[in-house]
Amino acid sequence: MATTRKAADTDDLWTFSLFAPPSALSSQDDDDTTSTTTTTTSRRLYQLQRSLTEGGRKVTTRVTTFPTDATTAATTRVVVDPNSNTSTATTTQEEIEIVATGTTTTNKNEGGISDERTSLLVNDETNNQSKDTTTSTASSTFNPTGWTFSSPFWTLQSNILLRLTYKPAWQVLPAYTRNKCHNKSNNKSKMLGATGSFAAACCCSCACCGSCCDGTQTDPYRSITFTSTDIRRVETLPSLTVRGLGECSGIRVYLEYPNDCFRLTVPTNVPQPYQSAWNQHVQHAQDNSTPNSDNNNNNNNNNNKSFLQQMRQEMEQDRGQAETVPPILHDDDNMSNPHVIGPIVTFAMPKDHRDDDEPPIAWKVDLPPPAHAGPIAIETVTVMDGPLLVVSNNTTNSNSDSAYQPTHVYVNGYQSWSFAGSVPLGQKQPKPAMPDTFSKAFNHGATLPPVSLEYVANHQQQNIPHHTSNDYLSDFFTCITSHQEELAVDDDTEIVLDTKHVTTEQQHQHPQRIRNNIKRPRRRRIVQRPLDERGGPALVLGWLSQRRQFGIISMDASLQRIQMHASHQGQLLLLHNSSNNDNLHSTDWAFCQLEAPHTYDEEPLVHYLRAVAGYNQAKPLQNGPLLTGWCSWYHYYENIDEQSLKANFATLSSLRKTCPTNVSVVDDGYMTAWGDWDSLKPGKFSSTNSMKAVADNIRQESMRPGIWLAPFTCDKHSKLVQQHPDWIIRNHQGLPANSSNCGKFFYGLDATNPQVLEYVYHCIRRAVVDWGYSVLKIDFLYAACLDGNGKYDLSMSRAEAMHLALHTIRSAAGPNTFLIGCGCPLGPGVGYVDGMRISADTGPTWYPALPLPWWDHGTLPSLRGMIRNSITRAPLGHRWWHNDPDCLMLGSTTKLTLEEVASSASIVALTCGMLLLSDDLTKVSPARMRILTKIFPMTGVSAVVLDMHSLKDGHGLPTMLRLWCTDVSEKRDEFRRTKSQEGNATRDHNEEAGYFSRFATFRLSETPTHPNERQRSCIHMVKGLGTWTILSLSNWLDTSAVVHIPPMALAPPPEAAIAAPLRVPTSPDHGYHVFAFWSSKYQWIAGTPEHPDADVSDNSNNDDDAFSTDAPLLSKLLGPHETEIFHIKPVTPQTPQYLGSDIHFSCGQEVDIFHSQEHLLTIQLRTDYHRVGHIFVFVPIVSTSQVRATCAGEPCRWTTVGNTPQIGNSGSPNSVLGRVLQIEVAAHGDGRDNDGTITLEY
C-alpha cells in the first residue's frame, strides 16, 4: 500500500510546494523591498496554498527564504483575493525546525510553514544514520527533488521536475530505420507476402521497446532528469489564465540544460547518408508551420500547404486563447541571445474555485531546442515521478487503520473501444485477449519511456524504467480512490421482491429462473457494499487536453511510483529561424486534484471533467436534439442497397406513434472500397446521385440523414492506394503501419500530409454539401495517427496529427453538422465531436462469439463490453459530448435473452446515451418492441454510478445507478404548455429531452450549478408527482443471485436541491413505497435510509451502525445479466400518490397532469404515442368497496396489489394506512376524446 505519514496539527490546507536552490534567481530579486535576508546563498520555498476552512477562500502564494547560515527564515506571502485583481505582500521572521523524521514544527505565526508535508522536500543528513536523531536546522542538506502537492489526507510527491527522453533526430528518419531493419524485414515480407495482409500489419517495434524487429539492439535513447538543482530562475505569477480553470496564481520555473549534455550525445551535423532525407523533412516541417507568402502561385502543392497552414493557424489561435505562453529566458543576462537556456515549467492553482471545492494544481512544460548541438527527436517528457503518501490521523502509529489507504485505480483506455473501469489495487488490469498484430493499434496511444542512457555530470549511466507487467496504465486520466471494507451484518428484515416471470418467451428461455413469490423474513449474513460517495480521499490525475501529446499514467500496485508521461514518440524538436516563442515546444497542461473524504459530489472525476470541457470548449448536446434513430449496420452489415434502405425508412415512419426517430444513418457498404468514397457499388445504387437521393428520402420521412465515413482509412485494393501510395502511414520498416484487424487489415492516411487533409476536407464537404447529410458518423479515426515514422512531417506528434485531422473534419462539416466520433482517441475528440462512441461494438451475444476469445476485455464485439463502458464512461456524457453506447439490439435473431435486452435498454436509458436501433423493426417480437417503448422518450439527464470505484472485482461491472425526480420546479409544466399547440408531425419528439438536457449539460456560456445540486441526474416532473429516487440494480453474474441495495442508496442525498433552501426529505415517518419497474411489483419498507452526510443520531457519531442495523435491506433475486429499476418514494399518509407504471421507466414522464382533490384523483397521460399498460397509485383508504376507475370515460379494470401499513408510536406497523391499486390504462394518440384521461373515485 501507499506509504503512511503522520499528520501535523495544521489547518485544512491544500499546498503546492517547491524548493529552489541558492543559485536560482527570483522575481523577488528584481524589486524585493520587503526582505532584508535574501542573499545569493539563500534558498527559497515556493508555495501555493488554499484553506477550505471558513474564511480561507484566498489563494496564498508563499515564498520562504532559508539563509544557509542561520535558522531564521523570511517569508513573503502574496495573498490573492479572487474578487479583485489586487494582491498584497507581507514579510515575517520565523524560527524553523526541521525534524529528522520529516515533520516540520513552527511557531504558529501567520505566514510560516504551517504544513509539515512541505518537509518532504528537505533531507536531513542524519536521516540515514538514525530515525531517533535530534532535530536539525534549516541548513541541513538540500535534497535535489521536485515538488509536493498535499492535502490533510494524502500527499503526492514528485521526485523530479521533468525527465526528457530523446535521441538524435536523424535516427528516427525513415531512411535510417528502414536501413536498420532491412535484412530481417525483407525476409519476413517474403515469407508472408509483401502485399499480403500480414505484411501490411507487421509493425516494427523500434520506437517503443528499444529493439529492432530482428531482436537486435537499436541505437540507445538518452535521458536528462531535471530536479530543483537545475533551476536557474523562479517567478511568482499573481495572475495567469488557463481556460477551463479560469484565473490562477502561479509559479514559473526556468531550468537549465546541463553543460555539454547534448554535445556529448547529439552530433551537430546529420550523417551524410541521411542528409538529403533530413533536409526534406525539415522542409516539410517548415512548409507546414510557415505561412505561404506566394499568394500568386497556383501550384496545387502550394495550395495544399496553404490549407494545412490555415488549419494549424486556427489551432494555434485557439491555443493562445486557452493559456498564457511564457516569455523565453536566454542564456545571457541581457536577454539578447536568441537561445533559450532550458525547459520552462509553469504551475498554476485556480483562484476562483468554489469555497468547498478542493483546489487542483495544473502544470505544463515548454521545451526549447538545444542551442549548441544537433537536433533531437523527443520520445517522452515525464512530468511527474514519485509516490502517493498517506497522512495518518493517528499521531502514535503511522500504520494505523485510521489512515485512508488507496483501494482502487480507475483505468481509462486510449480510444472509443478500449477498456475503461476501476480496478482494485493488487488485481491485474484487464487486457485484450487478441494478439498485438490484431489488436495493438486499437489500444496503442501513449507509450512508456524506453530504456535510456541517463546524463549525469558529464557522463552517462543506464536508466532502466521500473515498469512491470503488473503496473496499471491509464491513458489521458486516472482516479485513485479509497474505500472502506464491505460491512457484514445479520439481517432479519430482508425483502425479496417477486421474481415470477409470466411471458412465454421468458419461461422458454430460462425455466430455471421461475420462482414462487418469496416474502418471508430469512435470517442470513448480509454483505453491504460500499458506495463511492461514502469513500475516502481521491487523487485525480490527467491532462486538460491531448492536443500536443498523448499522455499516459503508470502506477505500481503499491503506488510508490506514479508517473505521468507526455508521449512524443519520435517528434522532431526543431529550431525555427526566430527569437520568439515559436521555438518553445509545449506539453499539454497536466492536472492533479486531491479530494477530501466524503465530498464526492456526483463522482470524484467531476471537477476534472468540467475543466477538460472548459479547456477544449466542449459543446455537448448543443447541435440539435438528442439522437434516437436507426442505423443500417447490424442488420445489413455491408449488404445495403438503395431500395432496401428506402423500405426501412418507410417502416420507421410507420412506427412514429410507437417510437418516433429523428435520424437514420447509412452505414458501411455503399462504396466500392474504403478510400473511394465517391465510387458507389454498381447494381446497388442506381447512379452517382443515389446518395443524395437517399438523404432526400430520409429527410422526407422527417428524420436527419446520417452517413458513415472513415476518411483517414483506405483499403489496400482501393484506387486511392494506387494513385497516392505516399499518403499511407508506414512503420519503421517502410511497410504500411499496423491498423489492427476489424475483420480485415486496412491502411491509415497520414494527417500530417497537406494533400491528405485536402482530400479529407473534400470528402466531408461532398457528404455534407453535395449529398445533404447533416449527421456524420466518422469511424476508425485513430488511423490518422497510427504509430510509425513513415510520415510527411515528423515534427508533429501523433496527438497533433489527430488534432489536425479532427480540426479538418469539423472545418469541412461546419458548425451545425452533428459529428459522431468512433474509434477515436478520447482526448483529441473533446470540443470537436458532438457524439462519441465510448464502447466497443455491441454484439448478438453477451460475450464475444466464437471463434473470438470470450474472455476478452478489450475491443471485441459483445453486449457485455458495450454495457461495461457505457457505465464506466457515463460521467463523460453530457460534459464532453453525447455518449454513444452503440446500437440497441432487439431482434430475436440474436442470442440475447429478454433480460439481457432489457438490461442494455436500462443502461442506455439511465445514462441517456444515443438510442440507435439496428434491427429490421418489422420482424421484432412484440415483447422486445415493448422494451423499446418503455425507454422512449429519453429523459435528457444522466444517472450517477454509485459503485464504480468500490467494486471488489476489476473485471466486474458496476451494478448501481441512481437518478432522482422532483416536481418542485415547474420546468416540465412550463415546457409542455409552450409546446401544446404544436402538432406531433411538426416537432422533434426528443425536443423535451433536449430542453432538460440544458440543465444537465456542461455549457461554456453558463455558470455551472454546484454539483451537490445534482441537476445532471435530476428529472423534472409535473406538479403533484412528488420527489423520489430511481435506482437500478444489476446482476452481471452468469448465474442467478440475490443482490442487495445499501440502505443509504435508497433516498436522494440531502444536498440535492433545486433552489435553496429546499432540501429533499430523507426521514419520512411512514416509510417508503418501493416499485420495481420491470417486474411491476410493489413493496413497502420502513426505516430511514439516510444519506451518509445526514444527521442520523443525536447521541452517536457512528454512521455505519445507523445504516447497517436500523435500516432495512432491499434485495431481489435476479437472473443472469438481469437488471431491475426501483422507484423509492416517501409515503405521504393523507394524500394519493403516483407510484409508477409499466409504460415508461421513469414512472412519471408519461404523466401530463396529476391532480388530487377530495375522494377524486385525475391523471392525464401523454398522448403523443400509443401506449397500453398499467399505472400504480397509492390511495389513503382501508376499504376499496367504493373505488371506481375510468379511462377515456370508460370503466377500466383495477386491482389491489399492496398495502401500506400505519406506523404506531412504537415505530412498528400496527394497521393499514392505505392501498396500492393497479389500473389498466391506454393512450392511443389518435386524437379521440378524453384520450389518456384516468379518473379514480374512492
TrEMBL record:
SUPFAM superfamilies from the UniProt entry? (Trans)glycosidases
InterPro entries in alphabetical order: Aldolase_TIM, Alpha-glycosidase_related, GH, Glyco_hydro_36
UniProt key word Hydrolase:
yes
Record GO terms (molecular function): alpha-galactosidase activity
Q: Where is this region: Disordered?
A: 21-41, 279-305
Q: Where is this chain compositionally biased, Low complexity type?
A: 295-304
An example GO biological process term is:
carbohydrate catabolic process
Annotated CDD domains: GH36
Where composition is biased (Polar residues), the residues are: 279-294
Record key words, sorted:
Glycosidase, Hydrolase
Descriptive protein name = Alpha-galactosidase
